[in-house]
Amino acid sequence: MAAAxxxxxxxxxxxxxxxxxxxxxxxxxxxxxxxxxxxxxxRCATFIVKNLARIFDNExxxxxxxxxxxxGNASTNNSKNATFCQHGPDECRLNSLEACAIDVLHDxxxxxxxxxxxxxxxxxxxxxxxxxxxxxLGLPLKPVLDxxxxxxxxxxxxxxxxYVCKAYKGVAVPMACGSVHLKQKAQ
Length: 187
Known about the structure:
Belongs to the GILT family. The chain is α+β, with helices and mostly antiparallel strands and 187 residues long.
């Protein structure tokens, strides 16, 4: 049985209410195109590199709000507190990194360029070289990695109280944080 490829599109047409004689702004007229894809999926990578990239060349981006959603065929196992991706752990890592790039690099031109680069490397079988995309594009790596590390911490949801206690810098320490704050003072 062939593995399923997940690449979904949604197109949202904004309806604009206008008062008599007024013209809606260009931003209000834009369509939202959401692309849900799997990092490391050959068909998704090919679509991003060969097809989706064209919207920047043919000016279609001027009428679109492009919303990229790297997730794809992933599942969670709550008993093991783990996420599994169809194309393995590298796909899970790169999905998170690309999601962080979208979150940190608000400019669609920047985060799309990074995703394009990573997906191009995936097509060539060189996805482990993803860090080179930051330097070749002149994009900051640290904020994206900081986001990625934060995202990984949130996967450990059962230990959320310890994360709250470690982040708390106040004087009035609740009982739940007593041992955490004692360890921090000892260090």
